[in-house]
Structures are given as structure tokens and as C-alpha cells.
Amino acid sequence: xxxxxxxxxxxxxxSQRSLGDLGDGLTVVLGPNEAGKSTFTALTRYVLYGxxxxxEKEPQYASASGRRSGRLVFEExxxxxxxxxxxxxxxxxxxxxxxxxxxxxxxxxxxxxGVSVLAYKIVFGFGLDExxxxxxxxxxxxDIIAKLYAASAGLRTSPQDVxxxxxxxxxxxxxxxxxxxxxxxxxxxxRDVRAEIRAERDQGAAFGEARERLAALEARxxxxxxxxxxxxxxxxxxxxxxxxxEERIAQIDxxxxxxxxxRRQLKAAEETLTRVVPDKRVLSIANEVDMLAGDASAFTxxxxxxxxxxxxxxQVQRRLDEALAETGLSPEAALTLTLGPDLLASVxxxxxxxxxxxxxxxxRSREAERLALVAARVQGSLATVFExxxxxxxxxxxxxxxxxxxxxxxxxxxxxxxxxxxxxxPAIVMLVAGLAALVAGLLLRETxxxxxxxxxxxxxxxxVARGYLQGTTRRGTGAxxxxxxxxxxxxxxxxxxxxxxxxxxxxxETAQADAALAVGTYATREDLFAKRMAEVGLAAGTSPxxxxxxxxxxxxxxxxxxxxxxxxxxxxxxxxxxxxxxxxVATAAEIAFPxxxxxxxxxxxxxxxxxxLKDALAAAREVVFGxxxxxxxxSDLNAxxxxxDERLVRAKDEARAILAERGLEEGGSLDALREQLACAEAxxxxxxxxxxxxxxxxxxxxxxxxxxxxxxxxxxLRLSExxxxxxxxxxxDRYLVTSTAARMVGKAQDRFERERQPEVVKRxxxxxxxxxxxxxxxxxxxxxxxxxxxxxxxxxxxxxxxxSRGTAEALYLSLRLGLISQLDEVGPGLPLxxxxxxxxxxxxxxxxxxxxxxxxARQRQIVLFTCHPDTAELLGEIAPDHxxxxxxxC
Amino acid sequence: xxRPVRFIHAADLHLDAPFGGVDAQDARxxxxxxSSTYRALEALVDACIEGEVDFLVIxxxxxxxxxxxxxxxxxxxxAAATLERAGIAVYVTHGNHDPSSGWSAGITMPGNVHxxxxxxxxxxxxxxxxxxxxxxxxxxxxxxxxxxxxxxEFRRESAxxxxxxxxxxxxxxxxxxDNYAPCTLDDLRTGGMDYWALGxxxxxxxxxxxxxxxYAGCPQGLDxxxxxxxxxxxxxxxxxxxxxxxxxxxxxxxxxxxxxxxxAQRLDDVRDAIANAVDAALAxxxxxxxxxxxxxxxxxxxxxxxxxxxxQALVEDARxxxxxxxxxxxxxxxxxxxxxxxxxxGLRDAGDFTGDVVRLADDLLANKAAAASLVxxxxxxxxxxxxxxxxxxxxADIIARARDLALDRLxxxxxx
Lengths: 890, 416
Hints:
The complex is a heterodimer of chains A (890) and B (416).
Chain A (H helix, E strand, L loop, with lengths): L1 E10 L2 E7 L5 E5 L6 H13 L19 E8 L2 E8 L7 E7 L6 H6 L4 H8 E3 L5 H5 L6 H9 L6 H15 L7 H25 L1 H69 L4 H5 L1 H42 L3 H6 L4 H46 L10 H15 L13 H20 L2 H28 L4 H58 L7 H49 L13 H56 L8 H41 L2 H43 L1 H16 L3 E7 L4 E6 L4 E3 L5 H18 L9 E4 L7 H14 L5 E5 L2 H10 L4 E4 L4
Parallel strand pairs in A: 3-12, 3-13, 7-11, 11-12
Antiparallel strand pairs in A: 1-2, 1-4, 4-5, 5-6, 8-9, 9-10
Helix pairs in contact in A: 6-20, 7-20, 8-18, 8-19, 10-17, 10-18, 12-16, 12-17, 13-16, 14-15, 17-18, 21-22, 21-23, 22-23, 23-24
Chain B lengths: L4 E6 L16 H25 L3 E5 L10 H16 L3 E5 L19 E3 L6 E7 L2 E8 L24 E6 L16 H6 L4 E5 L5 E5 L2 E4 L15 E8 L2 E8 L4 E8 L6 H17 L5 E11 L2 H5 L3 H13 L6 E12 L3 H6 L3 H14 L1 H19 L8 H18 L4
Parallel strand pairs in B: 1-2, 2-3, 3-4, 6-7, 7-8, 8-10, 13-14, 14-15
Antiparallel strand pairs in B: 1-11, 5-6, 9-10, 11-12
Helix pairs in contact in B: 1-2, 4-6, 8-9, 8-10, 9-10
């Protein structure tokens, strides 16, 4: 891969300007100052790594014609590609365009792989300003040499970076000289968990002791419970004593007051008793008065009924008179008339019979008349029928017809037998039935009936036709047969008419006889009924209907007469009761009220007397009741006084006993008892407090033990410990692996530098010797010192800061050339761009340097910018195959 | 014909044992782990009752610590009481984790609990209907560090119809376990027992069938290394013929596996591989599983896994999904043990910087002292601060992984 052209599209003072074609090996670009040598060098770097922002301390090469942009044209084999960049964010976008050959979109990355922008600036594209930068960068964290060697090994990253990253990762777990979050966290967590485990174990170890304490507490609690019960019992007994004593005292006071009151009531009751005396006369008839009072309402009712009965008797008498008059008989006759059930039945029967016989008589008469008319009409029509036959419609018409018929039979006896088959009656029946079935089937939409009807019609028609045809055939026997047939028809009509006339005549005669018989029957029945009425005393011409009416009126009169008798009997009974009761009342009133005379009491005064008697009796009884009550009161008061006296004595005895029980026989009092109660209460309270205290302690201890028994916190804690330990082990493992990896990378770096860097240094030393003409023969990089040392021909070492500028620049150029000579595959397309780096060398060293450059140009493309023609000439002399480009001043 | 002697042999309950090496961040997982030894004890009691056994033998280490926790003692007392109601006796020896000299909370055990003496081989007779059917011989640890050979002292009495030895011991000096009450199989054979109910080794194993010498293992795996089925043995001895059947009891199972992600190209592939590994763990488990995975193989995804937080994100994603299963799985840890898809041999022959790194690592790996020196130098201040010897690194492993990390960064350019 070779860089062929550098094209400035718009960069600094240059626009649309290019440098090329560059040679495969050494290209010397000769140009005066401000010809653009540094500009092309910078443009190459910027196209490869991006345009610097204004804040970066890099030459900006701002363009007056727009955004900075440039192109590099690379070539390899037959291919040709352009790497182009335009100013923009993040250095500006870079693109690869293929001019010739296969596309290589990753060409830019291939070219710059493993070469950072700083490495490029120091090693590949440098001027005098960058000459000393290799040494300055050593140990600064950006080891250019190491990076380049890493790249030379095909690594995509710097071992230094890898090591730094691994170290950083390791420190995430643990930092020997700093704070490491992960391990510290885990150690802290482990410490906490283990402390909890210890505490939990301590609790477990105290379990036995706690159980013993609990047993002791249980015993104490039991004793305290006994004491508490005892004290409570004492308190309860004393409280009971106080209460009982207070109750007795109250009872004594209550009894005293109650006795006083009772005695006062007794005295008043006894005084009342002496004042109350009942009426003995009234009390002597108390039962009679009660009965009279009880019957008073009945008496009143009887009296009213009696008077109403009297009125009704009068009314019924009047109705009897009216009923007797309606019968039309004398009262005696009416009341003595025999009205048995036979009479009434015979009247009814006669009435029904006569009605029926009368109707029958009339009907038969009408029928006889009708039949007579019919017989006459039929008889009249016979003449018409008999006339063609020559028969007289008289009584001898019958035998004449029979004779004529015999003649006709004789005439038809020859061959007329078939005529009987002329009309096939079954066939006609079949035909008619078929038609009926057919019509019915069609009307009713009965297919079966229709079909059956149809079949019958066809069959009937067939047989009728056959009969007809047969008859027709036989008709050919002659005219005699025709006459006979007509005679037969006339004879049949005459016979029928004759028979009808006979029947009508017979019916008329029969009906006439029946009508005469019905008239006779009716008359006979009328005679029989008249005789019966005469027997019972009714008028001879009385019809059944009139007889029935008379009988009904007589019966009503008799019922009224009976009613009257009953009323009169009831009235007499009521009168007797009223008078008896009034007598009893008068007698009682005479006893109770001396002013009353027994015989002077009217019935109407009876209710008033009863009322007076009742009042008097009630008053007497009230006096008796009041007295009895007072006597009960006196008796009750005496009993209560006695009971209270007894209770009073008992209460006083009990009060004394209570005091005696508490040891207070002498001078005992309620206050003394209360004083004892207060002492007992205090002791019970103290016992309660002691019990509660022990119970609370026991409860706490029991809770602790329960927790120890039931919890699995210990197991959980140990699981936590195991978890943390696992995480700690993982952290330790990761730390050790990561840290060891970092250490191994570091060691490899050391080995790499120790074993491979000498190749670089050796090559640089050779170049340095060549440039300095063996004035300096040695070059060394002391491990760990980050310092270069040179040795002169006398093996005297000299630090770089003590070298002259020219010697130092020769040294740095030697280092670069030596380094690049070892970078076989790093930056395959990157040319080495040197900007007048030989200017400070003396001619001898300049020649040596030119030889080294020409030598390196055989393996890597080099573009050397110079404004000194003699330098160009020198290079041309040493490397005749070099390419030369001359630049004019911009 | 008498009924066979039927019992359950369990050991190393380690009630309330702390679970080491697990990062149980989920509350459900924490609760399950915290109560797992108790749940296993409950399962053991259920197995005894359902199996209608004559008795239960526990060959040491009922509790995890000499300072037995109150909760543990109460839980065991409750379990024994349940068995007592079922008419099942319990025979217990103290082991190195719960020697008889250990602390007691003073909780009285039910009458069916028989603890073997700690000063002699004690013979306890099991009776059925008043007739002796079996003799148990056992001895408890007085202190945790019993180093005498107890097994030699066991001698069966001639009258015993069935003799069972109960001992907490390390038969044959197995590595990884304290060599307490050490003995050999020959020592066990001389005792004349029909069945040796052994404890101390947490992995269930039948050491011998003549006589039967069986480690019941722990009913509940106590750390990620104790993976696989854990439980007890139900034993039947009929006329001298012993038959055993293993019963799984663990409330939480552990599962460790290596997941080869050599074919993984991206993190998505790694995620799928982790999910498949979790599925496989659940497929072989009957209880919730705590899963630990090591990603191995030379994979293109190695570089992506080196990005800080990348693997953790995958783990958290897998956790969220696995916790939704029934039974659930907890992805406790996924370690990246992959190697970059780098041709180490090629780099080793190269004369460049990465070759230097490879050769430097080779030198260190070839010189253990140098490797240890380098790693110790790096780890010294950290380990000093932590004061935890268990965190001491494996220098060779660190060097190898550090090499891979360095190469990955140098070649993949992650640091750029």
C-alpha cells in the first residue's frame, strides 16, 4: 500500500491543490518556506485522524473557501482508492472511495490500525517540533513504543490499556491501598451477620438458664397467686362483714321506723272498726233480694209479653171472624166440616181427570173430522184411476182389480220372464252409491272415497247398461208385450189407489168411534164428582176448582182459630207469673221497708221496689265488707308488728355476731370494721401487684423462650452468612483473576520491552552511529527509568538532556527510524512524512541521516519535505531512484 | 413363624445445620433451606410410620453442633413423641457433631428414645409382645474428637436372634471426613453383627453385604457437594436374611454439573445451555433443587461472558425462570470456566506479545512455587483483610484463568 497523492480541496491557504505522485520509496519534496510542506504534512494527519476543533492546540489551517477538506489517494497493485474527509463534528466524516479495483470500505481502519493519532504525529508525520516527543511520552501513560509494538503483534489494543482496564476492574473488588466498594460492602455485611449470629447463639445458650428462671418464676407465681387469693379472701370476708354490718344497722333503723308506723295504723284501724254497723233486716232477706234482683228483668219482660199477648188475642179473634166469613159457610159448618185428606185428594183427582178427559174428547173429535175428510177425498180420486181399466170404484172394485191382474199374468206368462231382469236394481244401487261416494269424496277431498266412488259408478253403469241392453234385446218380442206392460202399469196404479182408499175409510170410521167414546167417558166422570161433593156437604154443582178453594178457606179459618186458642193460653200463663213475682216483691219490701204494705203493690211499681231493695242490700253489704276489711287490716298490722319485732331482734343479734366474729365484742362499731377492711384491701392490693409483677416477668421470659423455640432466624442468618461468603469468594476470585491478569500483562510488557525493545534500540543505535560517524556508539533505555542514555566512543554515558540539539535530533531521528524499521505491518499504508528534520544536522551527520532515511525508504514509503536544495541533492545522490517533487510558494 | 425385624436406619440428621457455599437470595429458597433438615426429619418420621417399622436407629449426629439449638432439640423431641404414639422406639448414638458432653436445653425426650452409653458398648434389647426379637449394640461419642476404634469392642451375644451394631465411624479412613472412631471392614466383621448401622459419611452407601455394613448418609444434603438422592434405609431382617431399601427424604436436593458451551456463539446460546442444564437437574429430582453449574469449553461466547455483569444477568434470568417451576429450582451459582476461542498452541509459538503472555503463564504453571508466589503476593493484602483461609485461591487455576482473561482482552479489544 502506497500513498500516491495528497490533495487539499480546501485547507488553509490551499484550495484545489495536490501533491503527487509520490514514489514507492523515498520522495523528496523540495519547496521554499510557505510552499505548503507543513500544510501537506498536517493535512495528511487530519484526513487520517480528523480535523481538530478550535479548542485543540493544533494548527487549525482554517480555510477561507469553506469547510476544510482533503483527500489521500492510496494505491496497491492495480487498485486505487481515495480516503476523503470533510470538516465536521468529531473531526468530520471520513469516506473511502474506490477509483480502481475492488472496493475496500475498511481501508481507512486498515491503514490506521494500531496507530493512534499521537503515535502517528510523533512517529509517522513529524517535524522538528515533534522530534523529542518519543522520550517525552515515555512513562506518561501513552507509551508510544509499546503501543506500536502491540500493533505490530496484530493486537487491536494496547497492552497498557488492557492492563489499566484490568487494574481498574480489580479495584472494583479490592484496592490494596484504597477503598474498594465491593469487598468492603461484603466484609461489612459479613461482620453484621456474624454479630447477629453470635447474639442469636448467646440467646440459645441462655435457654437452659432461662428455663430454670422460668421454673422459679412459675413457683413464685404460684405462691403469689396463693397469697393473692388469701388476701383477696380476707378482704372479701371483711368487706362482707362491713357490708353485712351496714346492712344490719340499716335494717334495725328501718324496723324501728316501720314498727312505729304500723302501730299507728293499727290504732286507726281499730277505731274505724268500732264505727261501722250493718242493716240486719236487709241482710236477712239478702238472698231473696238477690233472687228478685236477678229475676227483675224477667219480670219486666213477662209483664211486657203479657200485655202484648193480650193485644194479639184481640187481633187473632178478628182474623178468625174474617176467615169464617170468606168460606161462605156458617161458622159452625165451617168449623165442623170434615176435611180429611181423602176429600182433598178426590177433589184434585177429579179436577185432573176431568181436564184430561175433556182434552181427549176434544182431540178425538177433531181427528175424526179430519180423517173423514181424507177418506172422502181419496174415494173421490178412485174414479180417475179406475176409469182406464173399466172398473167401478165401488165396494166391488177390489175383486175386479184382482181379476184383471190374473188376466195380465196369464198374458205375460210366455217369455215375459226376462222382463223382470230388465231393470237391474243392484246395478242401479251400485251406480247411485258410487255417485254418492264420488261426490262425497270430491267434496271432502278424500281420494280413497273418490276412487272407490268412481269404481262403483263405472261398475254400476256397466251393469245398468248391460241390463238395459238385455231388456232392449228382449223387447223385440212384439206389440203384445207393449200392451201388457201398459195394462200392468195401470193395474198397479189402480191397486195402489184402491188400497189407499180402503185405508182412509177404515181410519175415518175408527176415529169416529173413538170420539163418541171420549164424550161418554167425560160425562160419567162429572157425575161421580157431583155425588162426592154432596156427600161432604158442599153444594151439588160445585166444580172441582171451587171445591178446592172452599176447602182452602176452611182450612185457613181453622188454623186461625187454633192460633187464637194458643194465644189465649199463653196470655193466661204470663198473667200468673206477673202476679206471683209482684207478690214476692211486696213481701220483701214489707220486711225491708216498714212503710210498705204488701197488698198495695201494683205490678208497675215492682221494678222500683226491686231497685230500692237492691240499693239497701248493697249498702248493707258494703258496710259488712268494710268492716271485714278493717278487721283484716287490724289482723295484718298485728302480724307485721310481730314479725318486725322479731326481725329487729334478729338484726341486732346478727350485728352483734358480726362484731364478735371480727373480735370487736367490746366497743365494736362500723368504723372499726371499716378500718379492718382498709387494712385488708391494702394487703390484697399489694398481693395483686406482686403477682402481676411476677406474671409479667414470666410472660416476658416465656415470650423469649417461645421465640427461641419457634424461630428459624439462626438458620436464616447462617444462610445469609453463606450467601455473603459466596459473594465474597466470587469477589476474591474475580479480584485475583483480574488482578493476576493485569499483573501478567504487565510482566509480559516488561518481558516484551526487555526482550524486544533492544531490537529497536539496537537498530536505532546503528543508525545513531551511522549519523554521528561513530562518535556515539551506544544507546540504552534503562528499565524502569524511562530515560535514554547514549554512550560515546569512550563508553561514557550521557543523558539526552546533555546532548547538543543536533546530536539530540540525530538521536530522536535514529529512534524513529529504528522503531519504524521494526514495524513491519503497522500502518501498512502510512508513509513516513518528515518535515525538514535534517536541517540542524551538520553536513556529516546530515549525510549519515540521509543514508539511514534512504535505507529505511527501501521498506517503507518516506516523504521528506525540505526547503534546502542541498539536502535534496544529497538525498538524490544517496538514493538516485528517489522521486522528487518541487513545490512553489503558495 | 415370627415376623421379621423391620427398622429404619438413618444418620447424620444435622438438624439446623448451616448451609455453606450457597447464595440463597430468594426468600422462598432461604426458607426451604433453613427448614430442610427439619422437613427431612418429618419425612423420616412419616417413613417410619408408613413402613410400620419396629424401631428407628440414628447412627449419630442428630444435631449439627455440640451446642444443640433449642429448636433442634424440640423438633427431635416432637418427632420422637410422634413415633412414640405410633409405638416405634428410637435408638440414638451421639456422633462427633453432637457428643454426649454437648449442651442440652434440658428438654426431656419421650420414653421411646434410647441413647447409647458413651463409656461402653451398650446392648439394648428390642422386645415384641414381651419376647426379645433383636439386640442393638452401640456407643455414643462423649466428645467430638473420638479417635479410638470402637468397632473392635462390639461383640454379639450368642443368644441374640438378630444383632445390630450402631456406630458413628469413618470406615477405612475416607478422605474428606474427620477420621473419628476409625475402623476397618474387618473390624466390623469380627463383631458378629447382622447389620451395621453406620453414620458419619453423608453419602448413602452399602459398604458390605456380609455382614451388611451400611452408611445411611444424611437425609438432607448440607452443601452443594452433597448432591444426589439423600435419605435413609428401611431394613428388614428375616431369619438372618437382610434386605434393604433406600428411601429418599431430602426436602431440597443439590445438583452440580458442568455445562459445555463450546458450541455457543452468543450469550443467547449460553442462556439456552443454562436453561437446559436446569431442566436436566429438575428432571432427575423429586424435590426442589439448588443448582450449581460450571460453564466449560472453548467458546466463542467466552468473550461476551467476560463483560462485567453479562454472566450475572444470565444467572438472574435463569433464576427467575427456574423459580417458576414446580418443584422449583434455584440457580445458585454459574461459574464461567470457559476458555476463549483462542489457539493457545498457535499463540505459544508466536513471537509476539500474546505469545509472551502465554509463555509467561506456562512458566508460572510449570513452576507452582512461582505461581503461588505471584498469586499470594496479589492476594496477600486481601486475604489478610478478610482473615478467611477458606478463600485461599488455587494458584494454578487463577493463573490459567488470568491468562485467558488477558488474552481475551488483548485479542478481542474489549478494553478499547
